[in-house]
Amino acid sequence: MREAVRHFWPDGYPVKLIQVAGTSGKGSTSQFIQAGLSSFGKAGAYVKPHVFDFAERFVLDRGLADHGEIVRVWEEDVRPYSVESAMRGEAWTLDHFEASLLIALKLFEKHRLRWAVVETGMGGRYDPATALEVVATVVTNVGQDHEEALGAEHWQRAVEKAGICRPGVPLFSADQDERTIGVLKDVCRDVGAPYHHLTMKDVNRVKRLVAGRGRPNNPDRLLFSEHQMVNAALAARVVDFLVGGASLERLARSFLVTRYVGRFWKIDKDVYADVAHNSSKTKALANELKARFPGTKKVFVVGISGPRDPVAVVGPIVPQAKALVITSAGFKGQDPGRVYARLRDAFPETPIHLAPNPATTLSVARNIRGQSEVIVFTGSTYMIDQALNQDEHLRHLNASVGWREENRKQVSGSPSSSLPEEKR
Fold it and tell me: Is the domain defined by 2-256 classed in CATH 3.40.50.720?
């Protein structure tokens, strides 16, 4: 990745970059930082995964990248370099993540942005974005996810995420777990990076400002619940550091209008989607739903992907569930019949329905829902795409993800390498 950056920008990359890592809250925090910086100059963000459309990954100042522009950057810049570098041998072959990141960097440059936020994928230490020169790093928190790759112990996952630290570059974190704080402080001390920790005083300042602005009881806005207040406060600390003396009132105005595809996303009246695919995220989602819709029962449509325990993922939302609708998660999805059986045994008091085809789940959920009750699609990004994407062409393309790997397996007769859990 460093070699690719030197190839395209031999004199250094012209946009100031901020890297965000963490188990949950990365996307929201990245969007809040981007929105806050946009109040002081042109700013963008590279976030992932996308839900319906690859263009969702590329936020350019006040909107998403244009399809044609993404194609031109790929065809004219990134693809020729990818082919040329691959000719040098397997070690130089750029993967999906690296090529997508280069597309984002090219788009940021073409739009003459001043700042851009880059969201880390799994972990951080070996993420392609960690090869970039940045002006600030952020670790939102450390929870439970990807233990098979990052480690079963909390400290192991914390070390992987702390791996985004750079000498002399400040690291910001909102995690209140003493285990995380200890690891982050130690790594920062070892690397020589200033450490900035979010306090409840910072969060309360944001709460007071937000409470007096906009429509505080509007459940459809992103900035509503406790953990989103924490994400916004963390973003405010980062923006204030970068611009020097940023007005919190000014930032609060930009945070209130921030929207994020896939993160508490309103699809229709009383129908929402949230890509909470691990237990840390579903705990946050449960708290958010309780704050947004107190006393209201919800019908949850759930698909589980990857090597996750369905009981651990779904457990936090069960107390608010009128019913669960279990469906296929598509790419890397667990068998919905097995998930249904596991959850039925674990939660015998909760009505659980099996609807293997995601395309049927919205009508199934509407038949179950009572008046003024809420439907929430959650779990796998792939399931949400197959259930709710109105573009039949994109839906077909996204449903076909991974077919090259399957063909390779059939041709070679050997198992394909494991793919990172993200859309290809």
Answer: no
Distances in whole angstroms, Cα of residue 182 to Cα of each of 6, 150, 186, 188: 35, 18, 6, 10
Distance CA 222, CA 225 (A): 8
Q: Tokens for 168, please give them.
A: 């002399």
Q: How far apart are CA 124 and CA 131, in angstroms?
A: 10
Task: Name the DSSP class of 374.
Answer: E
List the chain domain ranges. Answer: 2-256, 265-412
Q: Which amino acid is at 159?
A: V
Q: Is the pLDDT of residue 60 over 70?
A: yes
Given a contact cutoff of 8 angstroms between Cβ atoms, the answer to whether 97 and 133 are in contact is no
Q: Is the pLDDT of residue 410 over 60?
A: no
| The residue to which tokens 């946050």 are assigned | 284
Give dist(CA 310, CA 353) in Å, integer: 15
Superfamily name and number for 265-412:
Mur ligase, C-terminal domain (3.90.190.20)
pTM of the model: 0.84
3-state class of 120 per DSSP? coil
